[in-house]
Structure prediction request, 184 residues.
Amino acid sequence: MSADNSPQQHGPADGETRRDFLFLTAAAFGAVGAGSVAWPFIDQMNPAADTLAMSTTEVDLSPIEPGQAITVMWQGKPVFVRRRTPEEIKMAEDVDITTLRDPQTDEARVQKPEWLILVGICTHLGCVPQGQKSTDVRGEFGGWFCPCHGSHYDTSGRIRKGPAPKNLAVPKYTFLSDKSIRIG
Prediction:
């Protein structure tokens, strides 16, 4: 104590500076601790290795003749790959899209008119429509027919009749060559 019996005064800035430093240090350690606890939970939400392996599928198109179709699996879903005939392409292109429930031009659904690639799941209740085999019923529009509830799809996979609300989905795909595609 000084001669006037009062405690020695430190400026208010000294105490506030130390307190601020301690708060910032504690907050930084808390943030690092929270991040190290949260990271495993966030990381486990990433897709598993087996799921990533199924993320793409390569398809050899060379054995498919005009008018034929094959079904391949991609991410656990059937994908219809059809090599359309000139007649099927013309039928798909000649449709007045203003009459469609889910209007899309054929050009918006294909990269090359000869090849139609679709996810083969009916958009009504998730059934697999018929029409892949030459002996299957293809519905009134020459594409696919879902016998469960009577949805008819045309040669572009567009819904034309029945309860399905949307066209058959077009997956992301890339032509690797004239005879090979990668789906996904």
Helices lie at 12-43, 49-53, 86-93. The two ends are 80 Å apart (CA to CA). The first helix runs from residue 12 to 43. Residues 1-46 form one domain.
